Amino acid sequence: MRTPCSPSVLPFTCLLALGASLLPAPGLRAQQGEPAGKEAAATQEAPAPRRGRQGGQGQGQGQRRRQPIVIEAGTVHPASGPAIEDGVVVIRGNRIVAVGKKGEVEIPEGAATRSYPTGHVYPGLVDAETDAYTDPALRGEGNLDAGLELRLDLRAQNERDDALAAAGITTAYVTVRSPAQLRGQGAIVRPRAQGFDFWPEKDAAAVQMRLTNGPTPSHALQRLAQFEGASKMFEGLDDYRKAKKDYTEALLKYEKDFQEYLDYHEKKKGSGEAKPGEAAGTPANRPAGATPEGAPRVPGRGRRGTPPGGGGGDGKAAEEAASAPVPVAPEKAEAFENALLALIEAASATTPETAPQDPPQGRIPPRQGPSGQGPGGQPGQPQQGQPAKEEGPKRPTYPKKPNEDPTKEALLRVLDGELALRVEAHRPDEVRAALAMQKEHEIPLLVIEQAYGAADAAATIAAQGAMVVLTEVLPGRMPKVYESFDVPAVPAALQRAGASFAIASGAGRRASCLRLMAATAIAGGLDADAALRAITLTPAEILGVAKDTGSLTAGKFADVLVTDRSLFASDSHVLLVLSQGRTEFEAK
């Protein structure tokens, strides 16, 4: 005979049958190599230890530690201090453990030594702006906003040869140049020999804004309107923040009020007050098959959950349970009971004896007295000596959630200093407009990109703590309308003013030109140490990752670049690139 299964409650016998069908038989388990019965506990092996992650972090049992590496070179350039002749860099795992002069640094036992007697060792280069790994379709996309995270559109393999690692770049900020005024949020990546890795917690690092029409001729009034439109994007953010805060507070109050509402009715229900149609403690119209406590009875099971005949007795309880009707789910029973009680209360409130009657025409009904039936009282008051009906708390209303705006969410993070605001501004008036916007809205982190006219505002840039990322620092690269800008001389002007700046490639296809751009800045008046810093430590500071990269310092990641000559020599070649101690490029 087939056991009936209700859609609302699946009988325990059905569950037992289903579970039994899913478990293999003891004999089959034994054939599969699993011990059966008491032998299972005796022969079961302990679980294997968990393996740690690669890179020397979280090493577990069975994980072979990475062999220490010692790099010896004719000159080591830490970027955070003076060069070290006949220097040594010691690496353990993915970190640098020591940097110094050969013979003064302790060499770990069993370390693998790589010697470059005439070579130069530098920190891995940091490219502060590139379009490497980006989808080419984004470059012409004008419908972007500040909430768009570009990391979702990056490709490990592109049709271009984005060989950043081979050029010595171990950290890069990826963005896209498009006609949109807001260009989403750029990401910081670690280039690999194949593809890239996202920098932890830096896959959305800054909001991109365009505050220029580029080399296209434009009137000053047209640019002024553009500046005002960009500044207005920050208006209304306080109201948006307040609406979010008010909603959060209202939600907490709703949860508190709703809990009080539930507690009141639970307490009233447990007080034993009799409702119409039921005795105290006994629900009226109890569904068939329910226990005295109101829970449905499980068919085919004996007392305390033992099967019929399994716990003693004559099996009479089993027969009664088997012949019981199909149970009703507890929540449906409670809903049925509440609905029925509501109907009874509504009917009792409008019986012929209590229903209001229209007074005869031309007669005025007498005023009710204190008892509710005589003159002089107020209608609706209880009879003398009868307690007033207790009114519980009303059910609270769920607060309305304000509409979310991805652009406002991103700009609020800019105002809170969680994200930098990177503004593309070429001309001097565009640079000054970006600085005015920073001052007006108190933007903590402002980075001005491609600031070819920044020399005129260098002092203001330094005073406000803004930062500059320069691209196109190459001779003959400027379009005709920008011929008046001496871009190779801008880094020296910023250095003299004490402003923070970095030199960047601007494009993945120009990755190998990054060190050539720094050399061009040296020709424009920048000293060599500052030029090295502009492509290593300073961009790491601008990107907020200087505690882990940007210089050869003990404790930082083992991001190392080795060249056969000075980095700024036109005929120098890359010999070795390590990223977190892993070899990403090595000349053959």
How would you characterize this protein structure?
The chain is of the alpha/beta class and 588 residues long. Helix content is 27%, strand content 17%. The chain is built from 14 helices and 16 strands. Strands 5, 6, 7, 8, 9, 10, 11, 12 and 13 form a nine-stranded mixed beta sheet that branches. It has a seven-stranded mixed beta sheet with strand order 3-2-1-4-14-15-16, with no helix packed on it. A hairpin with a 7-residue loop joins strand 1 and strand 2 (84-92). It is globular, with a radius of gyration of 39 Å.
Judged by helices, strands and strand pairing, the structural class is: alpha/beta
Secondary structure tally, helices:
14
What is the string of SSEs from the N terminus onward? Answer: HHHEEEEEEEEEHHHHHEHEHEHEHHHEEE
Spans of at least 5 consecutive residues with low confidence: 1-63, 274-315, 350-364, 367-377
Kindly state the mean pLDDT as a whole number? 77
What fraction of the residues are assigned to beta strands by DSSP?
15-25%
Categorize the overall geometry. Answer: globular
The radius of gyration is: 39 Å
Biggest beta sheet summary: 9 strands, mixed
What is the helix fraction of residues, given as a range?
25-40%
List keywords for this structure.
single chain, 588 residues, alpha/beta, nine-stranded mixed beta sheet, seven-stranded mixed beta sheet, 14 helices, 16 strands, globular, disordered N terminus
Topology:
Elements lengths: L11 H11 L3 H6 L7 H5 L25 E8 L7 E9 L2 E7 L10 E12 L1 E6 L38 E6 L7 E10 L4 E3 L7 E5 L9 H13 L4 H34 L45 H8 L6 H20 L56 H10 L4 E5 L3 H14 L4 E4 L8 H7 L2 E4 L19 H8 L2 E4 L10 H10 L4 H7 L2 H7 L16 E4 L10 E6 L2 E5 L2
Parallel strand pairs: 1-4, 5-6, 9-10, 10-11, 11-12, 12-13
Antiparallel strand pairs: 1-2, 2-3, 4-14, 6-7, 7-8, 7-9, 14-15, 15-16
Helix pairs in contact: 4-9, 12-13
